[in-house]
Amino acid sequence: MSGGFTALDFWVLGLYIAGVTAWGVWLGRGQTGARDYFLGGRDLPWGAVLFSVVATETSTLTFLSIPGLAYATDLSFLQITLGYFLGRVVVAFLFLPAYYRGRLGTAYALLQTRFGLTTRRFASLIFMFTRALADGVRLFATAIPLALITGWSYPLSILVIGVLTLLYTYYGGIRSVVWVDALQMVVYMGGAVGALFVLLSAIPGGWGGLMASAGEAGKLDMLRLGWDISQPYTLWSGLLGGAFLSMASHGTDQLIVQRLLTCRGLRQSQWALIGSGLMVIAQFALFLVIGLGLWQFYDAREFARTDEIFATFIIEQLPPGLTGVVIAAIFAAAMSSLSSSLNSLASATTYDLYAPLRVADEAALLRVGKLFTLLWGVILVGGALLFRSRDTPVVELGLAIASFTYGGLLGGFFLGVLNRRAVQRDAIIAIAFGIVVMSVVVFARWWSPLFVWIGLDALAEVVNYVGTIAFPWHVVIGTTITFGVGTLLSLTHPPPAAPTPGGTPAGDARAGV
Known about the structure:
The structure is a single chain. This protein has a single domain (7-27, 44-387, 394-511), classed as Up-down Bundle (Sodium/glucose cotransporter), CATH 1.20.1730.10. It has 21 helices and no strands. The protein has helices at 7-27, 34-39, 46-56, 60-72, 78-94, 96-101, 109-114, 117-150, 154-202, 206-216, 235-251, 254-260, 266-297, 307-317, 322-354, 362-386, 394-418, 424-442, 444-453, 457-466, 474-490. α12 (254-260) crosses α15 (322-354) and α17 packs antiparallel against α18 (424-442). The protein is globular and about 70 Å long.
């Protein structure tokens, strides 16, 4: 066993990072316009897009924390992956046809064709604000296990990941992001399988012994019935909460929608999205089984943080070389998430904010898009470097940041697709109201002392109660509130006689095509 990060591991990690960066830069050759840079010429194979979608939503935290979750509990997290799959099916047949009918370039261009340019910009700004905050926290969180494993400082870990990812994203665009993501998914899944193989070889009885011990301890339980909304992993919170969370992240978030729009057509995009749902179930099952193996290997020993368990096994137990591969897998998960964020933020800024202000050709939009990529890289890396709290549960913070806006955005999209009476005013007010309400629900522990201080004790008690609602329900609640408010507002005026003005004709560069 290695007992540390050896010179061989550093060579493996260094060669991987250098190779991925060089390949990503090379993939960007021949770009002539923003359509190539942000949409890959709409000519990417659905299999690569499928892998890219899965890699994008798999961060370093997922790689390390899901095994820790199974170590401490059981397999009940799999319930939420079933909801993830159901949500993707809804997006594939409800939202994707609308995106492809308009040949749109961002998720929020759909809101422009339905409500108007102001709604598009409003939703895009919400996405940018949320993504910048969440990914700054996520990048900092990624540095924690990397610093633990490699011995690097937090700032050095952040800079290595950030600068190298920015380099190939800046030159390569979405084509580079998708293909490098696909490779990185293979790397981190291969690293996980290798770690599981080492685990099983070290456990008495191997696979059979693990299943027997885990079964006796009740750690193979997967279904939890009941409607307790304070419990995050039940069948209903998994199916409903997971479905709504997936509909929001894969149907309204430019981070995922952008790569779905790079496919060669609607059918291929649907295959990529639905296939990613099946892949995610298999992936989380693998991570959870690793957690069971760690539980058996360490004989249920207590750890200060469950996120440290898999990292500890990697650095102490894996043989030289394989340790480097698994650390490369952790880098892969981090780089794939960051590169996707950079390109999606740049595309939203270019198409949703800059392009509507002026007529610009593809070459000009390409130059502007690269500048925005660089700007967002500085913002995300800078935000991660400035983040100082070591005690804040960064996983929960990242989820909370996304949760309080996802419901508002998804409710706005449902309003546009399902309610023909609603107009731009209804959509903007409803989205804003939903986000405000969810900011109270998600960050209840911050609001409650304020209400007590100003003498509103009863309201503080209500806020404390809603603060116990588990995170899978947040998007469900936010979507319901937003759609309900928008529907009520749509009843206060006559139905529009014609489609709301403000959309741009299909094919116009300013519509994001």
